[in-house]
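Objective 1b: paired records.
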Amino acid sequence: MQTANPYRAPTARVADAPSDEVGRINVLSIKGRIGRVRYIGYTVGVVLLCNFGGGLVSALAGPKIGAAIFLAAMIAPIVLTTMLTVQRAHDFNATGWLAIIGFIPLVNFVFWLVPGTDGENRFGPKTPPNSKLAVILASAIPAVMIVGIIAAIAIPAYQKYQRPDSSGESANFERVRTSE
């Protein structure tokens, strides 16, 4: 007769079964998770909304009150994007303290690139699926940034190329004539 070994490792499955539950998005909290697409869209939206709205209200309020409103409008996006960055770090199962690297220029793009954890992790259930509009808007943001950088380089170069000299001809024609 063969007896069971009491020192043998258990063979039963002890991991939790995956759940189909999705978490709620709460922008004004550091708890929970937020996916890449929403993170990109919300951070850009918060910065644009606070800066444009704060600038408009401060311009209408007068110099003294306007300065205080403008200062608050500059601090608000920093606080809100930091909270979103903490949630984004939670999405790839990292501590919220990783959000400190969000203050380092260009290193903060790591939050745009690192994929989130599939399913539930220690910070909550998986993030809800993105809508098609959110995906389109989040895809357009890097394209607008690239076009802006190219325009910032190309427009001054083109203006210098087209700037006429004292005889009324462009600088390009002057260079061609002197090389002959």
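Objective 1b, second protein:
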Amino acid sequence: MPPSCVSTSAPPEPVKRAELTRVFGVRLFVALYPPEDVRSELRRWLEGALTRARLTPVERWHLTLAFLGDVPLDRVAAVEEAVSRAVDGRRSMRLRLSGGGSFGRSTAVWAGVEGDLGPLHELHGGLQRELANAGLPHDDRPLTPHLTVHYQGSREVLAALRDYTGPFWTATEIALVRSRFPQEGGYETVRTWPLAPS
């Protein structure tokens, strides 16, 4: 079955495409989404322990594998080609959410990830190499697998995550996602790629 996709074409003439690509771009990242039941279980755990903190919407919870930032419309096809090369031959991974933390002075609070971390890091490395080889923008920092659930630095959320261990699930696909924040809000899946059975 072919990968799902949405249109990324620019508006038609008479506006020149070169002008459009300078003005209009898309904010992209590559992500792995835990199944809905896995995310829902974590939300129930946290909501049962919280009295004040507000969580981010559960449908946005994901693991970021590569962040590209703003990409001109005429480079989106190159992004898809790079991701396709990085994913080729990669196998599904068994993962689970467990524990949590935050990054330095950042207010983002996240759930940690356990399981097949070796293949996950290899996939991340493959994405970085292919994006770099294609001359595409991307964050080249090392991967810390995590799923952000809160953006206000709540100690209450951190404490609730400390004792959390969720069920294992099998990651069977990754997605190229467009972020529409802050103008319109929400995420839009541009395309998905299957991972081969383990």
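Confidence is low (pLDDT under 50) at residues 1-23. The chain has five helices and eight strands.
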